[in-house]
Amino acid sequence: MQGILPYLISALLYAAMTVYFWRLHWSVAAAAPVAAPPLTIERAGVLTALGVHAAVLFGTMLAGNALRIGVGDAISAILWLTVLIYWLGSLFYRLEGLQALIMPVAAVAAFLPALFPAARPLPNTELLAFKLHVLISMLAYSLFTIASLHVLLMAMLERRLHRGALPAGLQKLPPLLTMETLLFRIIWAGFIMLSLTLASGVVFSEELFGKAARLNHKTVFGIVSWIVFGALLFGRHFHGWRGRVAVRWTLTGFLMLVLAYLGSKFVVEVLLGRG
């Protein structure tokens, strides 16, 4: 039970912030014109959850002076970075409505390492190229996780606008054009990180094995995802792609990323039990 307690505390902190954001920004009562608490309270609450989550991740992934990243650790770390990026973004944008959507996902992700622990440490973690590769790839996944949630929220907002009725949470979001501009900034940042992920993977392979990276399913899906997001950015710049087109391409690219890494880890570690 003691081993589960830190994960449970981390998950409960995110759950508490979920309730807070939902009641303040998405519930029916939130539509009433009441004075909102200072933003510093919200930011402090999220930062506290992030701090506890980081401490739990640090203790799990670096147990025994070795890097362990199982499927639960990977999802948990990606969601931690996602919440951190949202927290940093809240310093410049009004993102409270968006944070209400990511907090419950983070609550679940914070508990996953307890359910799916890594069986053994990763090899070659002493190499700088490998460490940079892992960090950059996590950032890429986090940015595209945000982009996928963002584009789904935009699709919901557009549909509700056509119906003429918006729930309280959607009424407090930035204008649709502002959200669209922010979406493509996120995708650009994620595309750069994904490009660096693929490049650093090649460097890591050269440094460790002295030969080019193997063309396995992970590499193939990663390249396909890179092509999808590159095509989306090209279409946005030269043809003004937006709306449903942006939704389809963003979600397709994100699905390819999930299949590239998390899908394979889930099959190997959880379904096959190979760790």
Task: Report a brief summary of the structure.
The protein has about 280 residues and is mainly alpha-helical. Helices cover about 75% and strands about 0% of the residues.
Describe this protein's structure.
The structure is a single chain. With 275 residues, the protein is mainly α. The protein folds into two domains: 1-122, no CATH class; 123-275, no CATH class. 76% of the residues lie in helices and 0% in strands. It is built from nine helices and no strands. It has helices at residues 5-26, 39-61, 71-89, 96-115, 128-163, 168-171, 176-209, 217-239, 243-271. Helix 3 crosses helix 5 and helix 8 packs antiparallel against helix 9 (243-271). The mean pLDDT is 80.
The parts where pLDDT drops under 50 for at least 5 residues are none
Helix content: over 70%
The SSE order reads: HHHHHHHHH
Mean pLDDT: 80
- Count of structural domains: 2
Main sheet makeup: none
Distance between the termini: 23 Å
Keywords:
275 residues, 2 domains, 9 helices, flat
Describe how the helices and strands are arranged.
Elements: H1 5-26, H2 39-61, H3 71-89, H4 96-115, H5 128-163, H6 168-171, H7 176-209, H8 217-239, H9 243-271
